[in-house]
Design a protein that fits this description.
Elements lengths: L1 H19 L3 E6 L1 H9 L5 E3 L8 E5 L13 E8 L7 H9 L8 E7 L2 E7 L3 H7 L2 E2 L2 E8 L11 E8 L4 H9 L3 H9 L3 E3 L2 E2 L12 E4 L3 E11 L5 E8 L1
Antiparallel strand pairs: 1-3, 2-3, 4-6, 4-8, 5-6, 7-8, 9-14, 10-11, 10-12, 12-13, 13-14
Helix pairs in contact: 5-6
């Protein structure tokens, strides 16, 4: 039912575009919601402020209008800590949410020890600029940044290899997490495992090259390559481990 409500709201974006003959935009959508759009044939242009953004806004434009990223109601705020502490994604997000702002008003948060960039709905940027002076007890300065010219920190990952008994989810998870097969099964059954942003509770679910595995409490891994089999019929795999 929750997915049906979400999909109807996204169809409303298209209906409003047709009715008023002007571009209309959704809130920020997470990866699962974006996948729901694709699966249900809801068309539009997704943009989150930069190439490769995870959280993105659906924009629907009239047929005669070329989609322009500059039309999206997205601002970018740069935070610079005034202390030596390294502030985390969670700390920046928590501070913003403490103002009573909904999560779907906030896009990606990219952090480095010396600064952080936060993409957000343009209607809340002034509120944040005026009210956030500290994050986790550390003083910060905040300023609007130019989305077109700013140089953003790159997402970090490393390529890791392991050997798995098969491409079943429980076997792959066992290899990636370096845990026993039974432990992997327990994690799956507990509802903590997502494949391509959707919860999977079947231990024998088949994993393919390119699949993204997310495990609550452990992080994410993207299957980069399924290699050759060993003499004992096990499989070499490589995956991107996001840092």
């Amino acid at each position: 039912m929750r997915d049906d409500i979400f999909l109807n709201k996204m169809r409303d974006v298209k209906r409003l575009c047709d009715k008023y003959r002007t571009a209309k935009f959704s809130r920020f959508l997470d990866c699962r919601e974006q996948e729901l759009l694709r699966k249900n044939g809801i068309l539009g242009t997704l943009f989150g402020g930069y190439d490769g953004a995870e959280r993105r806004i659906l924009g629907v434009f009239p047929d005669w209008e070329e989609p322009q990223y500059s039309s999206y109601p997205i601002d970018l705020i740069k935070f610079t800590p005034k202390c030596e502490n390294s502030l985390s994604h969670r700390q920046y997000l928590g501070t913003i949410l403490s103002l009573g702002i909904e999560r779907d008003k906030i896009g990606d948060i990219l952090t480095e020890p010396e600064y952080a960039y936060v993409f957000l709905s343009s209607d809340i940027s002034e509120l944040i600029l005026q009210n956030i002076k500290k994050v986790a007890g550390c003083g910060v300065s905040a300023e609007l940044a130019d989305i077109k010219t700013v140089r953003l920190p790159e997402k970090k990952f490393e390529i890791v290899s392991c050997i798995v008994a098969s491409m079943r989810l429980d076997a792959v998870l066992s290899g990636i997490l370096n845990k026993s097969r039974n432990d992997a099964k327990s994690i799956i059954i507990s509802g903590r495992v997502f494949v391509n942003h959707f919860e999977v509770s079947k231990t024998d679910f088949c994993i393919k090259e390119g699949d993204l595995l997310s495990v609550r409490g452990f992080g994410r891994a993207e299957i980069f390559e399924i290699g050759a089999k060993t003499r004992s019929d096990k499989i070499h795999i490589s995956y991107k481990k996001y840092i």
